[in-house]
Specification:
With 308 residues, the protein is mainly α. It contains 12 helices and no strands.
Length: 308
């Protein structure tokens, strides 16, 4: 029992060491309630975004064809490192909310799949995929409003009201299909593939836990980033053009981007920064997840001790 095994030289504290083992067993989200999973996702999402937000800014800047230097210079051309953190509160609200839905939905689907007799690997990856798919619905609306704010200004509450007034309520679903596909692959990689790779490396190859998590994060990021980047690019263009002046449906938007910029330069623009963003997000979210469970939900430690 971790409670009877005090930390030894160089070892993690007992609570963190126990949670690390639970993460390897991939049971953490299944042990928490839906509300607890949502809170855990919100907290870890905000913490991660506060650390790697510049990667998101640089990715968006490059996708729009703007110089990266504009993210750390003022309108007068003077150097200002804090410029790169403009929009951080909205980004934290977006990722915190999306992560909350992803953790809650993933935990729900993992419990559902576990009850059907599916193997633990399938439960972890399949539950994360379905959880991400569900999170794409609210995420799409939040990102639509964020992109419209970035282009045209407006308040947090005033922007969705303006969108509905000018384009109708159905416009809030613009880009939802691409967002759901992107988030399904993203969440499957973050909460399914990454901890699965970490577990295999630790158990089969004897890797140190954090090194294995870093390797799993990079592998998951490459999988999620490369596959979903065209979805992300098409979604962003569609949501930035609600009037459909240049971009209409999914296929037409993809063709228009490829015709104007080329397939690689168009659909994969900003990929480097997005992989950097995703890999650090995977690592940070899984690390914060392991360390915040004993702080927020100590009852989970007692329940796991009884189960073991």
């Amino acid at each position: 029992s971790p409670s009877s095994n005090p930390g030894r030289g160089g070892r993690e504290p007992p609570a963190v060491e126990w949670v690390s083992r639970v993460m390897s067993d991939r049971e953490a989200l299944q042990r928490l309630s839906g509300g607890e999973n949502c809170l855990l996702g919100m907290v870890t999402g905000v913490m991660a975004k506060s650390c790697n937000y510049p990667f998101l800014v640089w990715k968006n800047t490059q996708q729009q064809g703007l110089p990266i230097s504009t993210t750390w210079t003022t309108a007068k051309g003077s150097f200002s490192p804090l410029q790169v953190y403009r929009g951080l509160p909205m980004a934290c609200m977006n990722l915190g909310g999306t992560n909350a839905v992803q953790f809650g939905a993933t935990g729900f689907f993992q419990k559902l799949l576990a009850g059907s007799g599916m193997g633990q690997d399938g439960v972890q990856v399949g539950g994360a995929f379905l959880g991400g798919l569900a999170s794409g619905i609210p995420c799409s609306i939040w990102e639509l409003c964020m992109i419209q704010q970035q282009r045209f200004g407006g308040s947090t509450l005033g922007t969705p009201a303006r969108i509905v007034q000018e384009y109708g309520a159905s416009s809030l679903s613009r880009g939802a299909t691409m967002t759901m596909g992107r988030e399904a692959m993203f969440t499957m990689s973050m909460l399914g593939v990454t901890p699965l790779i970490q577990q295999k490396l630790v158990e089969s190859s004897g890797w140190e836990r954090n090194t294995a998590l870093a390797a799993g994060s990079l592998s998951g990021a490459l999988l999620a980033g490369v596959i979903t980047h065209p979805m992300d690019t098409i979604k962003s263009c569609m949501q930035g053009d609600l009037g459909r002046a240049k971009y209409d449906g999914i296929v037409q938007t993809g063709k228009a981007i490829a015709a104007e910029h080329g397939v690689v330069q168009g659909l994969f623009k900003g990929l480097f920064y997005r992989i950097a963003l995703i890999s650090t997000t995977f690592f940070l979210v899984n690390t914060f997840k392991q360390r915040t469970v004993p702080l927020l939900f100590p009852h989970a430690l007692k329940e796991a001790d009884k189960a073991r």
